[in-house]
Predict the structure.
Amino acid sequence: MPIDDSGTGDVRRSERAARGTYPGQAQGCTCTPGTTNSAARLTTFVGLRPPDTEPPTLTVDAPDDGGTVPTTFVVVADATDNDQIAEVEVRLDGAVVGSDASPAGTQYVITVTAAVGGHALTVIARDRDGNEVSRELDVTVGAGCDGCGAGYECVEGTCLQVAGQGCADAALCAGGTCVADGTVGDYCSQACTLGGEACPQGFDCVFDGTFDLCRLNGEPLEGEGGCCQAGGDGRGPMLLGLVVGLGVLGRRRRR
């Protein structure tokens, strides 16, 4: 079978293929000129890849099992695998409501919108061999600021994420800012004033090249400007232990 005609699937015919080792590769071979080893010869002399039956590991960082969340909330999960994670999927009452295949490190963030009331939340990590692991949680979606559970702040009648929480969208952050960080994962933050307005506990007020911003203690700047999102999509993990004593900008009104 010519490699150019084989598509992206496995080649399992016992015929020799022209050209290189993948579709479109214009490269000669070390065997008979213009050909490459067949699947049968590779199986004989190299052997088949052993099947992977080991499931991924999965930890759900947010929301809390039994917790209360607003109508729009984020699921933050940490997933790893001995080979490679294909995606993390979220189901609400059995129906798929979102997935993430492009993590920040090992952190996966999925935004979920749900009706007020109790719901069964299932988070599934799946590797590229189809092995799965899941976690079941019960959450209660509250109306208005009644849905502000741990990690949320009531701002003008809406539950928004406090500084330190993993970002899914800067518009969902109480401080209106999502810091884009490829090391610790993206997180909600807020503006500050050097020598003036203090940052929440666990943060330092630094100049990021554009404006003063609260960043995690000891976190180096990634470069001048462009560090943050004032809107649009962001990503990142729940940063545990950094949500004590958190505040929001004075320009926003709390309930």
Q: What stands out?
A: The mean pLDDT is 75. The chain has one helix and 17 strands.
